[in-house]
Amino acid sequence: MRINVVGTSGCGKSTVSKRLAERLSVPYIQLDELYWKSNWGESTDEELFPKLEKALSPDEWVLDGNYNRTTSIKWKRVQMVVYLDLPFRIVFYRIIKRSLRRGIRNEELWHGNKETLWKHLFTTDSMILWTIKRFSMNRKRYTELFEKPEYSHIKFVRLCSDKEVEDFVTHGLHTV
């Protein structure tokens, strides 16, 4: 099975993706890890696309991540897209909690990068601000993408509550 888990920052993509990959015994691929370089350097398309295509070359995987510009690559072979469309209040709470945890604990993310409290609270690069700005746009975008004929080969699963997410991860793969 080839699955892409998508949704707004803070919705639980990484957690759900890891659980699905473990449950299916398939590789877990994190798009952020392919994209970010050390010192928060951003990959160009010329750098990112070949890395993504190589990561997606196996027959089975769970991919965690959005990145609009990668949709045509990600969804070329994907069999299922799981859209975590949780209520804004839940996503907002989680992104604040995650941002504070990462900033306070000085957690290392990809390639030595760390998010600081300053970045989360006082800059335009804040994931909290990003989530506020992107939440409604993402919902509109995914709703439109799911209707496109070029993606008719994909099984789209939209999960709108923690209960739906838990049911799906626990035993929904075989019933969806």
Which term fits the overall shape? Answer: globular
Q: From the 3D coordinates, which CATH architecture of one domain would you assign? A: 3-Layer(aba) Sandwich
Query: Kindly, what is the distance between the CA atoms of the first and last residues, rounded to a whole number of angstroms?
Result: 13 Å
Provide the CATH superfamily of one domain: P-loop containing nucleotide triphosphate hydrolases
The description of the largest β-sheet is:
5 strands, parallel
In percent, how much strand structure appears in the residues? 5-15%
Which CATH C-level class of one domain is it?
Answer: Alpha Beta
CATH topology of one domain: Rossmann fold
Rounded to an integer, what's the Rg over CA atoms? 16 Å
Helical residue percent band: 40-55%
Strand order of the largest sheet: 2-3-1-4-5
How many strand elements? 5
Q: What class would the helix/strand composition place it in? A: alpha/beta
Q: Give average pLDDT, whole number.
A: 92
Order of helices and strands: EHEHHEHEHHHEH
Number of helices: 8
Report the uncertain regions: none
